[in-house]
Amino acid sequence: MTVSILGCGWYGLELAKTLVKKGITVKGSTTSADKLNTLTDAKIEPYLIDLPIDNETIDPAFFNCDVLWISIPPKVRTGNGEEYLIKIRRLITPIIAHQIKQVVLISSTSVYGDTNSEVNELNEPGPDNESGKIMLRAENILKEQPAFTTTIIRFAGLIGPGRDPGRFFAGKTNIPNGNAPVNLIHLTDCIGISEAILTQQAFGYTYNACSPNHPTRSNFYTNAAQQSGLEAPHFINEKKSWKVVSGLNVAAILKYDYQVAITR
Q1: Rounded to an integer, what distance in angstroms lies between the CA atom of residue 151 and that of residue 143?
Q2: Are 108 and 132 in contact, with CB atoms under 8 Å apart?
Q3: Of 83, 138, 160, 174, whose CB neighbour count within 10 A is largest?
């Protein structure tokens, strides 16, 4: 089996390394020439792919694979959301040309708005921010294609090596919504769920990938800051807009047990 991972960043590189250790042939892309050696050293076939929005040719060898894993950031905060959608559309032609049957898109639980309730894969997404709107459009662009099967993984807030949650709010005061629940997932479980989908060939579903533990923002981030030796943040004692993300399909289809608990 050959898996091509478009976007070997924080998550994509770790996934690629994990699959290589399993004996899977992995092709990985980066937008930085400086990172090509990093991929090679990890026994990942390296490709420099930037997906420009003009008609520049994309290396066709990258798309000679069984599964295409799309893990590129939408960069909505820098105003590049629409450009991201153009890139997603550009992928359709080489996917069909190389007869790739399985496409996995890394999306986000931001496709669900703050409904003040629990949401799962059976709920219709209703994003209330630009990032969520862009990601939902990207999901639909791929899901509408009949030539291949699209699998969606909606990650909650990402934490793990290099993303210490203790630093997120350290030393800040008057932070709103202190009693709202957190929706987070550790890199270990991001990889575990991804590997389970591939191993079980459980394609064609949408997976909410979020820890089943949901402590309050105040408790979680205060404890995280203290554990990192940082100044504790101070939250406002209130619960306004919120949601609890539940992943029915991770449990029912993958039978996956989370390895890292998100606790106080």
Answers
A1: 8
A2: yes
A3: 138
Q: Which two tokens stand for residue 136?
A: 């939902």
The per-residue pLDDT for range 119-130, each reduced to its tens digit, is 999 999 999 999
Nearest to 183 by CA among 153, 152, 163, 208: 208
Query: In this structure, what token pair is assigned to residue 210?
Result: 């979020």
Paired tokens of 21: 């250790």
For the stretch 165-202, pLDDT in tens is: 999 999 999 999 999 999 999 999 999 999 999 999 99
**Domain covering 2-163+183-212+244-252, topology:** Rossmann fold (3.40.50)
For residue 253, the SS3 value is coil
Strand, helix or coil at 61? helix
How far apart CA 260 and CA 10 sit, in angstroms, is: 18
Q: Summarize pLDDT for 21-50 with one digit per residue, the tens.
A: 999 999 999 999 999 999 999 999 999 998
pLDDT at 54: 63
Contacts of 42 (CB under 8 A, 6+ apart): 13, 16, 17, 20
Q: Which residues pair with 107 in a beta bridge?
A: 154
- Tell me if 135 sits within 8 A of 111, measured CB to CB: yes
